[in-house]
TrEMBL record:
Transmembrane segments: none annotated. It holds the Pfam family MAGE. One of its GO terms (cellular component) is nucleus. It comes from Atrichornis clamosus. Residues 1-197 form the MAGE domain. InterPro entries: MAGE, MAGE_WH1, MAGE_WH2, MHD_dom. PANTHER family: MELANOMA-ASSOCIATED ANTIGEN MAGE ANTIGEN, NSE3 HOMOLOG, SMC5-SMC6 COMPLEX COMPONENT. The lineage of its organism: Eukaryota, Metazoa, Chordata, Craniata, Vertebrata. This is NSE3 protein. It comes from the Eukaryota.
Amino acid sequence: QVSELVQFLLVKDQKKIPIKRADMLKSVIREYRDTYSEIVNKAAKTLQEVFGLQMVEIDTKRHIYILINNLRRAESEHLCKDKEKAKMGLLMVILSFIFMKGNSVKDSAVWEFLHRLRVYPGKHHKVFGDVRKLVTEEFVRQKYLEITPIPLTDPPEFKYQWGPRAAKETSKKDVLNFVAKIQGKNPTFWTSQYSQAEATP
């Protein structure tokens, strides 16, 4: 739940929308409402440590939160840089999903996963624009992702794998550490992924 909440908050923060406690309960925490404050505290700690973001309650009556950036942004960083950063964040989330699922994932699983993060294909996203285009065209063109048709599927299905650039710019180790930080676990928790990460330079 903590990792889902962290990702939910990051996506919300891209739009700079204040986050309501009710939304967190409804979208992420659901049946775990008894441990609500524990989950939120852990998520806040992760946001602070991993992303340098501080979760601040701006309305204590209605429980509304915002994320503020601790690392003072250099004035020269314009929105386009932030947009690029956000895209890279989304890419990192997709790459870690593919790796954790065994290095190859069906397209339906990718979209279902993004759906849970409130990022919808075919719906214009304020930061990412056309999400389907970004994932299936831009990330593929940039060689971060490889999408190949699965033979003999009707309707046609595709599998997603890391592209050559992803393997150069990041590593399985980095991705596993990213997931471990978000989930608050030790990378060795995932034995097969850990041994893969250790085996690849």
